[in-house]
């Protein structure tokens, strides 16, 4: 491999849904990509290994804390809570950029396993910040979540809305990430951008997400649950549009001493320090039942729906105001819902995972 003159980027959570897609895009965009993942069993690790195989790795070579190299990309199995080895990786690799996507995901899972969210999302992120402090990078991009908006009903959600009322520990951990990143931008001048992801969907998606659950149940002719009696909507965003947005954002870190920031009237999304927050979504909410119908259409089969009340920690609607990100990177998602769902269904039927 010839990585000469290529910018080197670390993607944490590279065996995950978004991380896998981002790695493929960045390899094809002339980056030297190093991926990290602990390949935990929150959902079937075979799907994570299949994603790594799709990136060109011989997964039989994977061992903890061993860097393996495919044709155009590298991977190491590491846990973000392992500070010593995380710092060693930063020291050895000297990254230009970091995209931190690794996290314990899932709102409902957080009701049963709150400690795993503190370990992965707070301690793990602190270790990334400490490593960026010790071995400075040009830009740290980290995953936040639309769930930080919590009880807010000021729709569409804007980055400067109040986010002080999270509904579950997952959302609280993402809010904490935003505050932690700002403090490190202030203390150590680490240029940091937080992305509040709205509902991302597409091929290779997680099995705990609605699209996978609906598709699997319909294929297997089984019942599936739709919460709040179907009276929900989500700002569904196709994964290819998400990773294109991240790619455009990577070389555009926030600036220090931002003159647009007014300390007498501070806003959450900007700072006088090198720090910023963006919503990243589609700016076009879709009724959940329309989403279900699109899955049925792609499979040419009706689903057996069981309507249920709202789940604790869930919200009725998400809707992103993403004007500031569109302007910043000059890109707006354009993938039609029907096309994105068909792409997911085709890959699901191929993988059987």
In short:
By secondary structure, this protein is of the alpha/beta class.
Q: Your description of this structure?
A:
The mean pLDDT is 92. The chain has eleven helices and 14 strands. An eight-stranded mixed sheet has the order 3-4-2-1-5-6-7-12, sandwiched between helices. Helix content is 38%, strand content 16%. The protein has helices spanning 17-27, 45-54, 83-93, 107-112, 114-134, 169-188, 210-219, 239-249, 288-299, 323-329, 337-351, and strands at residues 8-12, 32-37, 67-69, 73-77, 97-100, 139-145, 192-197, 200-201, 223-226, 233-234, 237-238, 275-280, 286-287, 304-307. It has one domain (8-199, 237-281, 320-333): Rossmann fold. It has 353 residues and is of the alpha/beta class.
Key attributes of the depicted protein:
about 350 residues, 11 helices, globular, alpha/beta, Rossmann fold
Order of helices and strands: EHEHEEHEHHEHEEHEEEHEEHEHH
Distance between the termini: 32 Å
CATH topology: Rossmann fold
Could you name the ranges where pLDDT drops below 50 across 5 or more consecutive residues? none
**How do the strands of the widest beta sheet line up side by side?**
3-4-2-1-5-6-7-12
At the fourth CATH level, what is the homologous superfamily?
NAD(P)-binding Rossmann-like Domain
Topology:
Blueprint: E1 8-12, H1 17-27, E2 32-37, H2 45-54, E3 67-69, E4 73-77, H3 83-93, E5 97-100, H4 107-112, H5 114-134, E6 139-145, H6 169-188, E7 192-197, E8 200-201, H7 210-219, E9 223-226, E10 233-234, E11 237-238, H8 239-249, E12 275-280, E13 286-287, H9 288-299, E14 304-307, H10 323-329, H11 337-351
Parallel strand pairs: 1-2, 1-5, 2-4, 5-6, 6-7, 7-12, 8-11, 9-14
Antiparallel strand pairs: 3-4, 10-13
Helix pairs in contact: 1-8, 3-5, 5-6, 7-9, 7-11, 9-11
């Amino acid at each position: 491999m010839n990585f000469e003159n290529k910018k080197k980027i670390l993607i944490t959570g590279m065996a995950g849904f978004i991380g896998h897609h981002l790695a493929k895009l960045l390899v094809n965009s002339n980056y030297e990509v190093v991926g990290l993942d602990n390949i935990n069993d929150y959902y079937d690790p075979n799907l994570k290994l299949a994603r790594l195989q799709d990136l060109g790795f011989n997964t039989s070579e994977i061992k903890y804390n061993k860097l393996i190299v495919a044709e155009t990309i590298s991977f190491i199995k590491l846990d973000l809570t392992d500070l010593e080895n995380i710092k060693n990786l930063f020291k050895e690799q000297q990254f230009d950029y970091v995209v931190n996507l690794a996290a314990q995901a899932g709102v409902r899972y957080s009701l049963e396993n709150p400690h795993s969210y503190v370990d992965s999302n707070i301690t793990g992120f602190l270790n990334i910040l400490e490593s960026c402090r010790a071995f400075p990078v040009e830009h740290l991009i980290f995953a936040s979540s639309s769930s930080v908006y919590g009880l807010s009903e000021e729709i569409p959600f804007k980055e400067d809305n109040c986010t002080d009322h999270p509904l579950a520990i997952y959302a609280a951990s993402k809010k904490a990430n935003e505050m932690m990143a700002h403090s490190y931008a202030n203390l150590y001048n680490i240029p940091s951008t937080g992305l509040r992801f709205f509902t991302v969907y597409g091929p290779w998606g997680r099995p705990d997400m609605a699209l996978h659950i609906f598709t699997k149940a319909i294929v297997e002719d089984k019942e599936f649950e739709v919460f709040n009696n179907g009276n929900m909507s989500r700002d569904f965003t196709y994964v290819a549009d998400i990773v294109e947005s991240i790619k455009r954002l990577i070389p555009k870190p926030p600036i220090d001493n931002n003159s647009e920031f007014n300390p007498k009237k501070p806003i959450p999304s900007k700072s006088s320090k090198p720090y910023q927050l963006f919503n990243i979504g589609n700016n076009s909410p879709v009724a959940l039942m329309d989403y279900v119908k699109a899955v049925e259409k792609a499979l040419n089969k009706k689903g057996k729906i069981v309507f249920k009340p709202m789940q604790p920690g869930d919200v009725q609607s998400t809707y992103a105001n993403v004007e500031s990100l569109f302007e910043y990177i000059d890109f707006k998602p354009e993938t039609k819902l029907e096309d994105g769902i068909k792409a997911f269904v085709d890959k699901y039927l191929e993988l059987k995972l």
